């Protein structure tokens, strides 16, 4: 028993395992390309120390919180909500006591990896080791080597994208660019707050959007112009991509007159029930048209029913583990957008799903035909050994490897970045090895593909340059 | 070739198989916990001998009947319906002649297991062996060792739940409790006949419901009170759970006034088309609220389109193998119930699906967040090697092991009980062994989990006490 | 590295691989039964030489074209559309340059197989080998041994069905029957052009349908009579089956009066929006009723959203790789048809899906109950190693092997016929071998099943006679 076995995630068959090992050896230490994620820009801009293990591993990690809550933990005992405990050691002990709940889950793999690789801790977390591990992590966190920028460098990250509101002034990104640290942190244009009429404070957001850009956001054309300007600003700050989190994959392609009327109904408060969805749908097509012009790569993360529990949302806010996937229809949903710009070779639209039944049925056929489309890696609940295997098994035969874009760690947990890339690289090597030993791929081709899956395809799809 | 290989269902890789074998050795003979099933309470209450092999293995087994019918057998030749043959040997020969149809299906595995373990028959059933096997089974059935209670004891069953109508007087359960046999047979409260307006005789059922309970079931509050009283009665008879078979997972949370109006429309015969579904939806939430109070564990079996063939239903009745699964939406369907009581730690709601696309997309994320939710084992068509593997592969990474509840045999075929638990235990050991050899789980953890999956989680989730 | 490894697609575990090898040895050279496909009847009727490698492998193969287009190739560069290049060598080079895109896809396996087995080419296609391979193929194509009928004989085909419009005069089939070649080419009745109101030229097609048959297709009964007559004609030409390509699996069972009214609305141009779908639905049931009488086996290929890109359809026509699958509901969709004739033992209805989530949830339960139903093999995007494995894993436990119908190559690429059967046979042997080594099937049973899956079940289900 070791906390991290060198052959983890490799196939048990000796011949296949041997191929997987040899493939992995060529990419194990390749630079990390992280074109989509949710790290806090303040980490990079301010580079302050993390306070303690509970702040780093438990409180903000919605994977961890939801599992503990699902087995009876109170949010307050995890430091969340009013009347929450402020005793960080107590939070950590609560977590350690329940560590067995994570058996067989990716959180376990990520945290074990971080304990070993980031903090040099080799024993499994348990009630018995909780205090010692807590103290050792906290001690490390006080040293300069454990500040965000130092971790970025230690992790071998080549480039890392944050996800930023269209209303953000990107001052943390300015700070990174103005200092002498050489890390490459780029923003991503995420306009949900001004694109989704159901977003909290939508109308106020439109006012700010106008004020920020000097555009008249009371008019449809002025509103679009505001997007153009913000996109240009993000691009000037290094952004290569936009990101869109929508409840469905529905798109629309209205006439300008209809789109303008729709917009007026929304901002004047006389929207019809179907208008919010129609507006989101129309805006995906507008964003795709802009991407054709300004070259920002477009990402669509569709199908999450956010804040499924009204109670949890009300008491504890967003991102507490209560976003639940729903069925998603890409074939019909994307048709208006694809008929408008899907054959335009200037566009790259990367699709993400939480509905795995769409991999083989919809996404791979779509990406295997339209030149604008690429498949994002397994997202969220599917960012795991079995999830990655299902993705490769269900998407590859129709879309091939070259219509996929490598890995996204997509995380707000800093120490999980190398862990997640490690898992993805191992899973890809395992899959390639199985193709080789079942003679579906020649070995030289597997060695050609491994570094592409580990970084090359991401660099190219996200237009990040390099190598 | 042996009828039951000691390594059946274990992975072929030698190292993985070795782990699976060692895990299985620790649980092979563990007591059987059977918290959900459809054995006939009369078996336990009256303890009469079964008449013959055809009555035991063919006529009542809808898995067997549907397969034979799908390949051209007439119901009459299987002893079903008017004008059915009464020649039991002829039925058995018909079955034996078609035994090859079951290759690769769980029915084959269950029947082979029963032939070997219950009747000591070691050769494969075939036209050549049909008569001899028929005679040997029938001879055994005449002896006391093959009566239901003796089989229960021989099978090592610790507790077994039946499924009983809300209108049942549970007299067979009384008989079990009043005799000196020590078997533990508990009822389960299944109120479909008084909850589903589309159920045959719904209005008459409500009258009987009122008469049984002394409640005025012409009023909404009286109707609810009748449920309270029947639930208390079932609980007094040992029940720890309720069970709900609904065509969808739709729930509702109406105001009392709206619920009362809905109920009045239904009993007065002026229901709207959507009212039956709305009433079923509302009743799930009512049942969940009652479970919070009286502690009965709630089970939801959703998504079966019952009696798909009108002809078969008309001529041959229910449960003839013509219930067909449909797509099921848990994320949106359960939301009203979960918003009402989903965060209540007193509630346990166990979810079952026939739509495997919901495992990873909906059920595991829901059960991995809400403290009230647990995932039932693979149900019905999925109660099989591949079905169990898909369940573990698709649910574990998001829900973990501890949000699942072990195995249900869910059967009306007595001799298949040990067979089904044997299959489930082997499949779980195979899955755990794969986690161990791919270093996703440490071996000591697998040995910790195996007995939980084989019984411990069921005891806890169903509040059965013991160990 | 060899272009075709003798153990390709077999499981890596040595014991399992050994079983797979021995099973495959018994069927590797079995005659090819091809009861459904899209080869051009002119090939068989005229037996002309193919002009060159690009015409044979690239231009008409929508699998190849869509992948190249998805990665930026212009249709014109592939010889498609107005202004297309006519330089066949340039097209071939374009293809060879992009051959890496097909890594891990079935196209790669099929083309490699054809290069080796049909043309004796042993090196992998690449930019370096492109010209040489092009020249060698073209040289072969000029010789008599590479004409269609000679290839049919060389491939060991026992019978091959084409798919033919209800309006076709089958003159190529006449030509085959009138010559002294002994190949068995049979037509299939595909009436989409006169059954689908959304088909191009539907009303004109009905006129031709009337003219061809001497029936009054302005009346519902005359229209049905025209089908009866065309079906009889196809049957006289050797057809044993019909085929129906519908966007959904919806069926209907209207009264004759309602059906007649519906038909009148459609041909008089006052159809309601739901009428086209309702008419297609009704016609499936009508076709099933006719099949009960005339014995033609019915095939339903449901769930393809044809011509998803309006632009591609307008500029380049049908079958360019832009048909995208959609979710399909068989349980509710087929119910009217099945309630009408589903229990009729004279009917065989073979179901195909592009929605794999229906395998275990809907198709296997339906085919495992209704005597009229059989499951077609994995279709289109799923006609591949992983696709076939998922089909067997998801369908077998509920439907068994005997409710499936063996393999369809379903191709318009002549040289891929033996390649596709080779893949299917290997996948089936791999699956059987896994059942054997996990002791879910005895070895003698696997040897019994292998030839059935390789041809026997197809002969029987499609009523092709022989053996």
Descriptive account of the structure:
Three copies of one chain form a homotrimer. Chain A is 50% helix and 8% strand. With 467 residues, chain A is of the alpha/beta class. Chain A has two domains: 342 residues, TIM Barrel, CATH 3.20.20.140; 97 residues, uronate isomerase, domain 2, chain A (Orthogonal Bundle). In chain A, α18 links the parallel β10 and β11. The longest helix of chain A has 22 residues. The two termini of chain A are 39 Å apart. The mean pLDDT of chain A is 97. The interface between A and B is large, with 47 and 50 residues.
Task: From the structure above, extract its key features.
homotrimer, 467 residues, alpha/beta, TIM Barrel, uronate isomerase, domain 2, chain A, four-stranded parallel sheet, 21 helices, 50% helix, Glucuronate isomerase (chains A, B, C), isomerase (chains A, B, C), Uronate_isomerase (chains A, B, C), glucuronate isomerase activity (chains A, B, C)
């Amino acid at each position: 028993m070791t906390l991290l076995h060198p052959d983890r995630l490799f196939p048990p068959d000796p011949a296949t395992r041997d191929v997987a090992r040899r493939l992995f050896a060529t990419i194990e230490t390749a630079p990390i390309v992280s074109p989509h994620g949710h790290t806090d820009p303040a980490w990079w801009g301010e580079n302050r120390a993390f306070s303690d293990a509970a702040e780093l591993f438990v409180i903000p990690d919605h994977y961890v919180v939801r599992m503990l809550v699902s087995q009876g933990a109170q949010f307050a005992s995890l430091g969340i909500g009013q009347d929450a405990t402020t005793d960080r050691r107590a939070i950590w002990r609560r977590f350690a006591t329940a560590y067995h709940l994570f058996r067989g889950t990716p959180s376990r793999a990520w945290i074990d990896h971080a304990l070993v690789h980031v903090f040099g801790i080799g024993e499994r977390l348990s009630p018995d080791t909780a205090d010692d591990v807590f103290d050792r992590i906290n001690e490390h966190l006080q040293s300069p080597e454990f500040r965000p920028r130092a971790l970025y460098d230690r992790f071998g990250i080549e480039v890392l994208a944050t996800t930023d509101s269209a209303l953000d002034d990107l001052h943390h990104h300015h700070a990174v660019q103005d200092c002498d640290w050489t890390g490459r942190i780029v923003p991503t244009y995420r306009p949900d707050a001004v694109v989704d009429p159901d977003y909290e404070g939508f109308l106020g957001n439109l006012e700010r959007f106008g004020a920020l850009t000097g555009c008249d956001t009371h008019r449809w054309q002025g509103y679009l112009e505001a997007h153009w300007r913000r996109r240009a600003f993000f691009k000037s700050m290094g952004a290569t991509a936009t990101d869109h989190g929508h409840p469905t994959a529905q798109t629309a392609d209205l006439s300008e007159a209809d789109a303008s009327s729709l917009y007026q109904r929304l901002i004047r408060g006389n929207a019809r029930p179907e208008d919010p969805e129609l507006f989101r749908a129309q805006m995906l097509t507008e964003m795709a048209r802009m991407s054709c012009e300004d070259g920002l790569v477009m990402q669509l993360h569709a199908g999450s029913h956010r804040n499924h529990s009204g109670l949890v949302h009300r008491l504890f806010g967003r991102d507490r583990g209560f976003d639940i996937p729903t069925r998603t229809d890409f074939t019909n949903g994307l048709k208006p957008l694809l008929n408008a710009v899907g054959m335009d070779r200037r566009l790259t639209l990367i699709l993400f799903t939480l509905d795995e039944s769409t991999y083989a049925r919809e996404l791979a056929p779509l990406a295997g035909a339209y030149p604008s489309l690429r498949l994002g890696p397994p997202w969220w609940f599917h960012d795991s050994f079995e999830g990655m295997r299902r993705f490769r098994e269900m998407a590859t035969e129709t879309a091939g490897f070259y219509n996929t874009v490598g890995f996204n760690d997509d995380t707000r947990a800093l120490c999980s970045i190398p862990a997640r890339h490690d898992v993805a690289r191992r899973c890809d090597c395992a899959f390639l090895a199985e193709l080789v030993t079942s003679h579906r791929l020649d070995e030289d081709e597997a060695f050609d593909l491994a570094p592409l899956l580990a970084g090359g395809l991401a660099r190219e799809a996200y237009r990040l340059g390099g190598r």
